[in-house]
Amino acid sequence: MNSKHIQVEHITLYEYESDVELAHHLAYLRPINNAYQEVVNSHLDITPTPDTHHQNLDIFGNQRDFFSFHKNHESLHVNARCEVLTKEIPKELIEMTHITWEEVKEQLRYEAGKSVSAAAEFIYPSPFAPFVMDIKRYAEESFTPGRRMIDASIDLCTRIFKDFKYSPDATEINTPVWEAFKNRAGVCQDFAHIYIVAIRSLGLSAKYVSGYLLTTPPPGQKKLRGADASHAWASVYCPGIPGDWLELDPTNNMIAGNNHIRLAMGRDFGDVSPIRGIIRSGGSHKISVGVTAEEVE
To answer: CB-based contacts of 287: which residues, under 8 Å, 6+ apart?
Structure first.
């Protein structure tokens, strides 16, 4: 597999109008190991120093950090740095996978006495990816009888890319998936959720992937630090390819490859939000985020 050595710095700064007296935070800012990626190192620096801080794995195998503050603080600075080796699945391995989508659906179907595939837990609706009949009808145009799982999955990805407009002003973080679908506009989070709803509506399995995308500045221009951003795409269960999951990026109409850096995977955005928390304070706050992804020569 063709691989790249990539380093990422993700800086998050919260500035509070008045001091925060108590805070509990959960972060998904450490990358994962899977068939597409190997973690070289990962660091998380937090200022001020938390009163409590511990790490563990969630139910999906993602690295997560819990940290809390029990004393007053006027800001929070989180600097996540990592290095990963990313991989690209050779196209010939993808083309060798001939299983149809109906065969995959049958594998995932529950039957008494039959062993249950771990992938089956990603069949069901979730808070950010509920069942939507209109999206199911949209998916059925790609998943025609007897079609290969690979071909149907890629076709759906391509159609979302062509039919929907990338528009940061069209949606907010909590915009329902059916609204983004109706308006045919949104951002990577929306397109990933639409794709996931479409796949699951047919009795197939799909995950939400949170991460980054390595970008290249225009010719003659220097890459600006902090100019990158978090990204999201989908992963569909397709037994037969390396790792049995095919990652597809409908925002860019591509198979996620060695330019994609994976942080976490879950049922939807709600499972793997990069950082969230609960604070006790009397004022509002301002947040700024900067991401820099660079290839290590």
So the answer is: 12, 13, 14, 15
| Euclidean distance between the first and the last CA atom of the chain, given in angstroms as a whole number | 18
Helix or strand run (H / E) with residue 293: strand 285-295
The answer, as to whether pTM is greater than 0.85, is: yes
Q: How high is the mean pLDDT of the chain?
A: 93
Q: CA 47, CA 191: separation in Å to the nearest integer?
A: 34
Helix (H/G/I), strand (E/B), else coil: 170: coil
Domains of the chain, each with CATH number or no CATH: 2-86+274-295 (2.60.40.2250), 91-272 (3.10.620.30)
What's the rounded Cα separation, in Å, for the pair 156 and 130? 18
**Separation of alpha carbons 157 and 16, rounded Å:** 40
Distance CA 113, CA 90 (A): 37
Do the Cβ atoms of 40 and 85 come closer than 8 Å?
A: yes
Q: Which pLDDT does position 159 carry in this prediction?
A: 98
Asked if pLDDT for residue 276 goes beyond 80, the answer is: yes
**Could you tell me the sign of the dihedral formed by the alpha carbons of 31, 35, 37, 40, in that order?**
positive
Structure tokens given for 213: 């995308």
